[in-house]
Write a structure and sequence with these properties.
heterotrimer; A alpha/beta (258); B mainly alpha (282); C mainly alpha (290); A: alpha/beta; six-stranded mixed β-sheet; globular; B: 282 residues; mainly alpha; MetI-like fold; elongated
């Protein structure tokens, strides 16, 4: 059974200037355990699609099912890592990581075992009693990832989670995310506008533009993927293809003649 | 050569001391000048030694007890009785303030959390509360005195009502302003509405509530003082009024200083408690 | 795309909803809804009051229509209160209170604004002002009232000093905080573009602190009405406080409530004007205009 099935999904917003169609009859099927990256330029509808998958937003038309059940609201089986910092500042790191388990009524002793496991996995065992304010942005993202994994969803939705981080931190978090993904076998849908991030992570890249799926590409490169990928000719071709799709090919800035 | 853009000033504590010294010097010089000219200098500005000497005169406000007679029952004016009178007044005024603030917190924060639970009711409540909050609440003092008598009970209800409305508005605002992303995150992690309220809303409002609480606290001191200046028969405000009737500025300064110290202490204690409650805040 | 996240159900599920639609018609509709909600809130208050008043005597809690009656009877002249020496009716006495509060608030607030802004950028001003601001930022300045009654006597001048000083302190502290909190990058950027200190103050510090200043002005005025009344309760020939004292002496509770409500209406009107000013002056600001 597919992890996600989207049929005829259309989302329209009424804005100051009239009706905007954010998603226009999107069709998408994601098998279990796949790592799918949604990529596209700003305003292409990729975050809207993710929010619809999460059940944070109801479709204007069309249906979404997850593991065969219709999506009609947020559900802990579909975890979300948000773009913004959502670590609860008034809870210590360990309490943040255990939040989903607590919501499910898991007893404290049992909860602690899972929390410790994921704190260790993301390398924050020593910070378990720290307040979020004492952590760097990258460490807070680790908390958010540990929180999402500890709640044990079958599907994990990630909305540009690493957008605000520096290159080195982001690369480390990619490795961490892939390791956790391989260990736990979750399905991941990851939104980004960064082509290199997509190439580093994805089994499959879905390109969105103006609310529609315009490309759906399998990424064949072996894992673990290293920086060597930058020199691989197939990867270079795919990268150029994606940049074309994002609209970078035919644009040159020419200043008007003085 | 130095360069750069000077963009910020700093707090420099030694200027506070300097200001204190300056105030005392100005006071003493002004008092000396006045003493040379006025017929009754004490009803304008007494000198510092004269003011300190008025401690024993405060005995007049001691109602009697602890083996020390009230002056109207033939007791002598002593420094001990004066200090007792000040302490007694401070205790009574402070008790009214604490009870009033407790009532205001129960009504304002407790009520705000109850009303705030349902967003539709919360938003609907804003407009009538803003109307109530816009009323000059201190002016309702004679009304409270009329309803409940010029008593501690009346003063506590007066403070509870006035500060309670301030806190109710602050609580509803704070609930409204909790960043949506925290609620979203809790929901997708499976939290129920009740758990969101308990674990996100209640701790999340504390930083914003702190400002409202500080305002309500200062406002409560105003209300306590006004209630005692205008009707109630005891407390620091009443002592102030009695001294005012006979233009005894020396006594007024002593009473005022105790009032200021008491109010400042509650604010400092509140700050400490608030720091502790929201030590997680950046 | 311009969407806002709103909530539905119990504090619960957040959904992404479009912002209200544009166009003149939509604006009118939104305004109509806002007015309807306020009217409903007002009606709710009156209904609660009317229900409560059936449980009490009229001298304790008069019915709403008795208060309206008191208002219309005493608006221009207040016959019963004039026997006790009151000049004019509710209108002229509310006018006295409003004029005093606004003039004192404007004077005190303006001085407070300039001192606050200057104290955030000029160390001498900071040093000179911080003792006063620290003390009266924590202690209510009503404690000065008895001294003012002795030094300048009861009346307009004493009320003016209390209200003006209060507004001075609130505005000075708020402006200082806002100017200190303003991220340095804006002024640094302006400096690299060639703006001198005075120019930076006028074009960066002033506009950037306006939302905080208007917010502070609303808070200050909200308390200032009451403070002016407290000054009048302590000793005044005129004003709302005086009317309240005289009315309660006659157990004329309907009159007390009527005159307080009249002043409250003016207070709401002034506050609304400040909100509108905020919206107009701060269209660039994302948060504070709402």
């Amino acid at each position: 059974m597919s992890a996600v099935n989207v049929t005829g999904l259309t989302v329209r917003f009424t804005t100051e200037t009239g009706v905007t169609t954010a998603l226009d009859h999107v069709e998408l099927d994601i098998p279990s355990r796949e790592f799918v990256v949604l990529i596209g330029p700003s305003g292409c509808g990729k975050s809207t699609l993710l929010n619809a998958l999460a059940g944070l937003l109801s479709p204007t038309e069309g249906t979404i099912t997850s593991a065969g059940e219709p999506v009609d609201g947020p559900d802990p089986r579909r975890g979300v890592v948000f773009q913004q910092d959502t670590t609860f500042p008034w809870m210590r790191v360990a309490d943040n990581v255990g939040y989903g388990l607590r919501a499910r009524g898991v007893p404290a002793a049992e909860r602690n075992v899972v929390v410790e496991e994921y704190l260790e996995a993301v390398g924050l065992s020593d910070q378990r009693h720290a307040w979020p304010k004492e952590l760097s942005g990258g460490m807070r993202k680790r908390v958010a990832i540990a929180t999402a994994f500890a709640a044990d969803p079958t599907l994990l939705l990630m909305d540009e989670p690493f957008g605000s981080l520096d290159f080195v931190t982001r690369t480390r978090l990619h490795d961490l995310l892939l390791a956790l993904w391989q260990r736990t076998g979750k399905t991941i849908v990851f939104v980004t506008h960064d082509v290199d991030e997509a190439l580093a992570l994805a089994d499959r890249i879905v390109v969105l533009s103006q609310g529609a799926v315009v490309d759906d590409i399998d990424v064949p490169f072996a894992r673990p993927r290293t920086d060597e990928l930058r020199r691989d000719s197939a990867a270079i071709d795919l990268r150029r293809h994606l940049l074309d799709r994002l609209g970078l090919a035919d644009q040159r800035t020419d200043l008007p003649a003085a | 050569m130095t360069f750069g853009t000077h963009l910020r000033t700093r707090h420099e504590a030694r200027w506070l001391m300097l200001a204190g010294v300056g105030l005392i010097a100005t006071w003493e010089v002004a008092a000396l000048l006045i003493a040379g000219q006025a017929v009754r200098p004490n009803s304008i500005l007494p000198s510092i030694p004269h003011t300190l000497g008025a401690f024993s005169e405060l005995s007049d406000y001691w109602p009697g007890g602890l083996g020390i007679k009230a002056t109207q029952d033939g007791g002598r004016q002593t420094v001990v009785a004066g200090i007792l009178a000040l302490g007694y007044g401070a205790l009574i005024t402070g008790m009214r303030l604490v009870l009033g603030m407790a009532l205001a917190t129960a009504l304002g924060v407790g009520g705000g959390l109850l009303i705030g639970y349902v967003p539709a009711i919360r938003r609907f409540a804003f407009s009538p509360l803003n109307l109530l909050g816009a009323l000059p609440l201190i002016a309702t003092l004679p009304l409270f005195a009329f309803w409940f008598g010029a008593t501690t009970q009346g003063a506590v209800l007066f403070i509870g009502f006035g500060a309670g409305i301030t806190l109710l508005r602050a609580t509803l605002n704070a609930v409204e302003n909790i960043p949506r992303r925290y609620i979203n995150n809790a929901r997708v992690l499976g939290a129920s509405s009740w758990m969101v309220y308990r674990t996100i809303i209640v701790p999340g409002i504390l930083p914003e509530l702190r400002g409202g609480m500080a305002i309500a606290l200062t406002f409560s001191w105003s209300m306590a003082l006004a209630a005692e200046l205008i009707g109630i028969q005891d407390g620091l405000g009443r002592m102030m009024l009695l001294a005012l009737r006979f233009s005894e500025v020396d006594r007024m300064i002593l009473i005022g200083a105790v009032f200021v110290a008491l109010a400042a202490t509650t604010v400092l204690v509140f700050d400490r408690l608030a720091d502790r409650a929201i030590k997680w805040e950046e | 795309m311009n969407v806002s996240v709103t909530q539905h159900r119990l504090t619960g599920v957040a959904a992404i909803r479009p912002k209200p639609a544009g166009g003149r018609l939509a604006t009118v509709r939104r305004l109509a809804i806002a007015i309807a909600v306020r009217a409903a809130g007002f009606a709710l208050l009156v209904a609660i009051w009317a229900a409560a008043s059936t449980q009490f005597l009229a001298v304790q809690l008069p019915r709403p229509e008795l208060v309206l009656q008191a208002l219309s009877d005493n608006l221009i002249t207040a016959p019963s209160l004039s026997l006790q020496g009151l000049q004019g009716g509710y209108l002229s006495n509310v006018g006295y209170t409003v004029a005093n509060t606004l003039v004192a608030g404007l004077v005190g607030g303006s001085v407070g604004f300039f001192v606050g802004a200057a104290s955030a950028r000029v160390q001498v001003v900071r040093n000179a002002s911080s003792p006063v601001l620290l003390l009266f930022g924590t202690v209510p300045d009503l404690v000065l009232a008895p001294f003012l009654l002795i030094w300048i006597g009861p009346g307009r001048a004493a009320q003016f000093v209390i209200v003006a000083f209060f507004c001075f302190v609130i505005l000075a502290i708020s402006t200082q905080n806002a100017a200190l909190r303003l991220p340095t990058r804006y002024e640094e950027s302006a400096a690299t573009l060639g703006a001198g200190p005075a120019h930076r103050f006028r074009t960066i510090v002033l506009p950037a602190t306006i939302p905080a200043i208007i917010g502070a002005a609303r808070i200050a005025l909200g308390t200032a009405w009451g403070l002016q009344c407290a000054g009048e309760l302590l000793g005044s020939e005129r004003g709302v406080g005086r009317v309240v004292v005289l009315s309660q002496q006659l157990s004329f509770t309907a009159g007390t409530i009527a005159v307080i409500l009249l002043l409250g209406a003016v207070a709401v009107a002034v506050d609304t004007a400040l909100v509108l000013a905020l919206r107009t002056l701060c269209r660039w600001s994302a948060g504070e205009g709402a």
